[in-house]
Amino acid sequence: QVQLVESGGGSVQSGGSLRLSCAASGSSYSVYSMAWFRQAPGKEREGVALIDRTTTVKYADAVKGRFTISRDNANKMLYLEMNNLKPEDTAMYYCAADRIYPASLRSYEYRWWGQGTQVTVSN
């Protein structure tokens, strides 16, 4: 089992940048596939990016070229660097983990979730 705590959200103007962090606790962090999801009001939760235990990454089309996911296994951290933010990126962002391989951006495959961090992008 793993516990996840996100941080780094905030309010920025369009074109700005934010870096989200997710601190994990528990054992065997390196074997987990990790992912970022987001959910805007009135919309379904959607996958943003994942990084699996081999550090293979995958991105949703909407964020390719703007977001970068990375992990620090020694410190049990997950990051999401978000650049050129757009108003449509406004959402609650969640960190998720599970022992799945190969990994996907299907939310139902992840058992452990953080509480979320809000990202708001204004024009």
- Number of DSSP E strands: 11
| Helix run count | 0
Q: Which secondary-structure class do the elements indicate?
A: mainly beta
> Strand-residue fraction?
over 45%
What's the helical proportion of residues? under 10%
End-to-end Cα distance: 40 Å
Give me the Rg, rounded. 13 Å
Sheet with most strands: 7 strands, mixed
Shape: globular
State the low-pLDDT regions, or none: none
Query: How much is the average pLDDT?
Result: 97
**Order of helical and strand elements:** EEEEEEEEEEE
Task: Explain how this protein is built.
The chain is built from no helices and 11 strands. The protein is mainly beta. Strands 2, 4, 5, 6, 9, 10 and 11 form a 7-stranded mixed β-sheet that branches.
What is the strand and helix layout of this fold?
Blueprint lengths: L2 E5 L2 E4 L4 E8 L7 E7 L6 E6 L5 E3 L7 E6 L4 E6 L8 E8 L13 E2 L3 E6 L1
Parallel strand pairs: 2-11
Antiparallel strand pairs: 1-3, 3-8, 4-5, 4-9, 5-6, 7-8, 9-10, 9-11
Task: State the gist of this model.
This protein is mostly beta strands. Helix content is 0%, strand content 50%. It is built from no helices and eleven strands.
